[in-house]
Amino acid sequence: QVQLQESGPGLVKPSQTLSLTCTVSGGSISSGSYYWTWIRQPAGKGLEWIGRIYASGSTNYNPSLKSRVTISVDTSKNQFSLKLSSVTAADTAVYYCARYVGAQYYFDFWGQGTLVTVSS
Amino acid sequence: DIQMTQSPSTLSASVGDRVTITCRASQSISSWLAWYQQKPGKAPKLLIYKASSLESGVPSRFSGSGSGTEFTLTISSLQPDDFATYYCQQYNSILTTFGQGTKVEIK
Questions:
Q1: pLDDT (mean) for B89-103
Q2: Please, what is the Cα angle at B63 between B45 and B56, to 5 degrees?
Q3: Residue B84 C-alpha, separation from nearest chain A C-alpha, in angstroms
Q4: Secondary structure letter of residue B60 according to DSSP
């Protein structure tokens, strides 16, 4: 059973960079036709796809966030990471990492989520 | 971008009721639609993929149908564990988007 776990600071100051890491266990991040993704959810609101990375390092980002987002992968640690720059209060949300099944286009395993608050 | 419109936004129902949630896409997405259940404080859980395929371990009272632009999620007999928020998710291009959610409440 694949498990994902987010980690990183829960509080980030405005204009700074939000950094999160997702650690994958129970399977290799390099195996299969999977994309490793980040999704966020502001309190009381819906889900927003941030971007994805393949084990090769190939990335795709949501156009609305593309200028501020970087997703990277470390296959040796079975981890992938999110950096979101120039954050504002609007970036306050629960951030989830999830596995995306590339051939069928759905998210089958999710992390528990981590709340990131942007505040001075 | 493809917009997904879910209806209703909120649904009040009783245990044992048959419940239907609709998701409409702004353009055709073939059968590339998934449904998720989310409970407060928890991550979404996959229920249905490719419009009508039931994820392993999900009770058979959940079913999905549709193709093109209109899709439905049906719960044949609502159980206490089913009170939650449900989201649809589409794939048509690299950008995947979710519906705004349908909250199923106890009547």
A1: 90
A2: 50
A3: 13
A4: T
Give the angle subtended at the CA of A51 by the CAs of A94 and A53, to the nearest 5°: 120
Q: What is the DSSP letter of B55?
A: P
3-state helix, strand, coil in chain A (%, to 5): 5, 50, 40
Query: Which residues on chain A are in Cβ contact (under 8 Å) with B43?
Result: 96, 98, 110-113
The first and second tokens of residue A81, run together, are 């990471």
Beta pairing, strands B102-106 & B10-13: parallel
**At residue B50, what is the residue type?**
K
Checking if the pLDDT of A77 tops 80, the result is yes
DSSP string, B69-106: TEEEEEESS--GGG-SEEEEEEESSS-EEE---EEEEE
Q: Which residue matches tokens 């990375």?
A: A53
A46 CB neighbours in chain B (<8 A) are 87, 98-101
A63 touches chain B (CB under 8 A): yes
3-class DSSP state of A66? helix
Q: Report DSSP state, residue A89.
A: G
Query: How would you class B107 by CB atoms within 10 Å of its CB: exposed for 0-12, middle for 13-18, buried for 19 or more?
Result: exposed
B67-86 pLDDT, tens digit each = 999 999 999 999 999 999 99
In chain A, alpha helices (H): none
Q: Report the chain A residue with the minimal C-alpha distance to residue B53.
A: A104
